[in-house]
Amino acid sequence: MTASGTGLSKSAPPMTGAGVLVESLVQAGARMAFGVPGESYLAVLDALHDVRDRLPFITCRHEASAANMAEAYGKLTGDPGLALVTRGPGATHASIGLHTAFQDSTPMLLFIGQVARSMIDREAFQEIDYRKFLSELTKWTGEVGTPDRIAEYLGHAWSTATAGRQGPVALALPEDVLSASTGRQRSRAHKPVQAHPAKEDVVAVAKAISAAKQPLLLIGGGPWSADQSKALQAFAERHHLPVATSFRCQSLIDNRSPAYAGHMGIGANPALVNRMKAADLLLVIGPRLGEMTTHGYHRLDVPVPHQRLVHVHAGAEELGRVYQADHAINAAPGLFAKALSEEGVSGDWADWCGGAASEESGWRSPVANPGAVQLGALYHSLRAALPDEAIVTNGAGNYAAFLHRFFEYRGFKTQLAPTSGAMGYGVPAGIAASLAAPDRPVAAVAGDGCFLMSGNELATAVRYNAKTVFLVLNNGMYGTIRMHQERSYPQRVSGTDLTNPDFVAYAKAFGMEAWRVDSSDQFEPALGRALATDGPALIEIIVDREAISPTATLSGLGA
User: Fold this and answer.
1) Are residues 426 and 446 in contact, defined by beta-carbon separation less than 8 angstroms?
2) Residue 383, strand partner residues
3) How far apart are CA 207 and CA 249, in angstroms?
4) Residue of 95, 184, 205, 429 with fewest CB within 10 Å of its CB?
5) DSSP reduced 3-state for 540
6) Which H or E run contains 542?
7) C-alpha to C-alpha distance for 134 and 139, rounded to whole angstroms
8) How far apart are CA 324 and CA 29, in angstroms?
9) Which of 315, 373, 402, 409 is nearest to 102 (CA)?
């Protein structure tokens, strides 16, 4: 029996607000949480102690990393990633994870300890109005004002994070609300609410494909399931339709597929860009068509592309935001792809598709770069050493251009990378992936600048025995910024040189195995030892500064 309008049980023994929160999380389906402990949510930490076998709390060394781990967990599993942080500095540190989750459309929940209700609006110690502060970074930010409504707020948060265009939600939790007594509150698991495609829309798109001479599919965004991804791949292969992926969504299709045309992101194959411009039908299933995928909105005319454009997106508010499609469809991309795969189309695009696949295969072949370490060959060696289901994570930097071009993604959700372009993501994402999928090998790739933004999380990897292999590509500078600096202000170096530690000694100080690679022939033996290690391991790879990108040298940029 419940009290009218509250969901509170009249007969159940009282609980703390924190106890209700944790119980509701377990009932909703939460299986792991990341955070840095804080005094403002001690009651939640206490409640988590009782369910540590069902909802383990992973103690991190920085809130930005905790938020990035939660985002990576959400991206990998499709369930909301959970992060818990304290007020003020804890929340501001964690905001980067919210930004990535928002731009990447990743379901995520951030719980923030807040000052007691009696202190609100007094600029109390570390007080922030999170509903104002986080309004641009979340789908919704709420603050719980009474312990009697905690289950309601949690349900609202979980549903919002997973519905439509998925994304992050933040909840501020005043500490006296968490410690207050309340009755047991009913809660349940939440199934994501997604828009299903109308039959007439699917039929119309199938007819548009049949009428096209040079169709191109561009997939990305979310949500997708493995079955939906495979159904689309089979459909494309059956009808010889080329499929490209948006920025950092390369693992939505097996890159060995004869339908795979490459990725439309930073450093895209010029031949693929030309094919997109030459296409008479562009079927976009999932991507927002944002800046990175469109190369600053120049690969497609704004607002009306010259190609016939069909745009399918989970969020109705995104359709027509920049590009005015011939046919805009509000539907979850995976659901639409599955429905389309069951429709028949007629046409012969074998030459068009085969040419795109051949161009992509050639583009992925290693090219020489300055220095003793050949990065194209290195990523081919990494691919050969890993099983198809292995997960590869990275942050942001020019080192990632080599990874995206030369590494072959073979399994669904085997790429975890921030479309937000956030540095410091790869290390915590690799740890989260190892903990969420302990049976799958994980390689976390980072440049030296990117790595040290979250390198302290090696302590977390060791504590929880996350079997992540960290690859640190060290060229002693912020490579991306240096590249642009040399192009715009040649030979006027300012702010981009770095002083680094001995990364091998750094890793060993945490109790990890580590090796240094100075030449290509040293990489495979080091990788073999790292993968055989029963725990985390690190490989420092010395990269020549001249190897600034797969297509340019540093000294040649300002010439």
Assistant:
1) yes
2) none
3) 27
4) 184
5) strand
6) strand 537-542
7) 9
8) 38
9) 315
Q: Is 543 within 8 Å of 473 (Cβ atoms)?
A: yes
Let me know: does 264 contact 244? Beta carbons within 8 Å.
yes
Q: Six-digit token pair at 154?
A: 């949690």
Element holding 551 (H helix, E strand): none
| Secondary structure tally for the chain: helices H, strands E | 21, 20
- Residue of 69, 80, 98, 43 whose CA lies nearest to 154: 80
| Interatomic CA distance for residues 236 and 518, integer angstroms | 42
Cα–Cα distance measured from residue 185 to residue 172, given in angstroms and rounded to the nearest whole number: 19
Q: How many angstroms separate the CA atoms of 489 and 482, rounded? A: 10
What ranges in 219-299 are assigned the alpha helix state H?
226-239, 270-278, 291-294
**Does the predicted model carry a pTM greater than 0.90?**
yes
The whole-angstrom separation of Cα 226 and Cα 287 is 17
Write the single-letter amino acid at 84.
L
Pick from 206, 212, 216, 208: nearest CA to 353 = 216
Residue 39 CB contacts under 8 Å (≥ 6 apart), including other chains: 86, 113, 175
Pairwise CA distance, residues 57 & 31, whole Å: 9
What region, left, alpha or beta, does residue 458 occupy, with left being phi > 0 and alpha being psi -120 to 50 degrees?
alpha
- Beta-strand (E) ranges in 303-441? 308-313, 327-330, 391-394, 415-416
* H/E run at residue 58: strand 57-59
Per-residue pLDDT of the chain (559 residues; tens, 9 = 90+): 344 455 555 555 689 999 999 999 999 999 999 999 999 999 999 999 999 999 999 999 999 999 999 999 999 999 999 999 999 999 999 999 999 999 999 999 999 999 888 888 888 788 789 999 999 999 999 999 999 999 999 999 999 999 999 999 999 999 999 999 999 998 888 889 999 999 999 999 999 999 999 999 999 999 999 999 999 999 999 999 999 999 999 999 999 999 999 999 988 999 999 999 999 999 999 999 999 999 999 999 999 999 999 999 999 999 999 999 999 999 999 999 999 999 999 999 999 999 999 999 999 999 999 999 999 999 999 999 999 999 999 999 999 999 999 999 999 999 999 999 899 999 999 999 999 999 999 999 999 999 999 999 999 999 999 999 999 999 999 999 999 999 999 999 999 999 999 999 999 999 999 999 999 999 999 999 999 999 999 999 999 999 999 999 998 986 6
The identity of residue 384, as a single letter, is A
Bridge pairing between strands 281-285 and 308-313: parallel
Question: Which residue type does 225 have?
Answer: S
What tokens were used for 73?
A: 């967990």
Peptide bond into 223 cis (omega under 30): yes
Beta carbons of 390 and 439 less than 8 angstroms apart: no
Structure tokens at 222: 């979310």
Rounded to an integer, what distance in angstroms lies between the CA atom of residue 161 and that of residue 28? 13
